[in-house]
Structures are given as structure tokens and as C-alpha cells.
């Protein structure tokens, strides 16, 4: 059953993003930013951890999880190291994902030619 909920929740997040682009006429960049902020706000309210326990990979794989990681890491370090911990842990938590995006984008640019 956990796989079914992960599929349904992850799919619902993707449908939300697609609806924002198709019906709301938002650009992909605006949609992505909105979903990151949504994940950050939900984590700030303390609802993302129960959401992860319920949906599993359906909540940890989509872009909303990036916003969750930013806020969760910042708040955790705020309690441990004070205000400077907010800035330092955001880089610790997100550096692997950002680095992977840069590397994969580089290789995609080498392998594929964009349509002009």
C-alpha cells in the first residue's frame, strides 16, 4: 500500500504543477518556484514530516521536497548554532542536489541540441 500512496501523492503534485502551467498559464520557472515555496511553507507549518510519513517517496521526490529541505535544514541548525546556522546548513543540505543538477545539465547540453 505505501507504493500506491507514493504514486498517488507524487502524481497529484505533478498534476498540480501541470495545471499551474496549462490552466494558470505560468511558465515552468514560475511553477517550479511556486512548488518550492509551497514545500517550504508546508514544512514551516510542521506538516511536511507527517506528509512524508504518509506518502513516502511521493513526498520526497517532487520539487516540493527541495523547499522542505531548505526550511528543515535551516530550522534545525538555527536551534543548534544560532542565526549563522540558518545560512550554513542551507548550503550543506542542498549542495548535493544543486551539484547534481549542474553536472547533469552540462552533460545534457553536450549530448542534445536544442531546437531553435
What does this structure look like?
By secondary structure, the chain is an all-alpha fold. The chain has one domain. 84% of the residues lie in helices and 0% in strands. The protein is globular and about 50 Å long. The termini are far apart. The model has no long low-confidence stretch (mean pLDDT 88). Pfam families: SpoVAC_SpoVAEB. This is Stage V sporulation protein AE.
Structural key phrases:
6 helices; 0% strand; Spore_V_AE; membrane; transmembrane; SpoVA; transmembrane helix
Question: How are the SSEs ordered, and which strands pair?
Answer:
Blueprint: H1 2-22, H2 28-44, H3 48-55, H4 57-60, H5 64-81, H6 83-111
How do you describe this structure in short?
By secondary structure, the protein is mainly α. 84% of the residues lie in helices and 0% in strands. InterPro entries: Spore_V_AE, SpoVA.
Q: Which class best fits the helix and strand makeup? A: mainly alpha
* Strand elements, count: 0
Mean pLDDT: 88
Poorly predicted runs of 5 or more residues: none
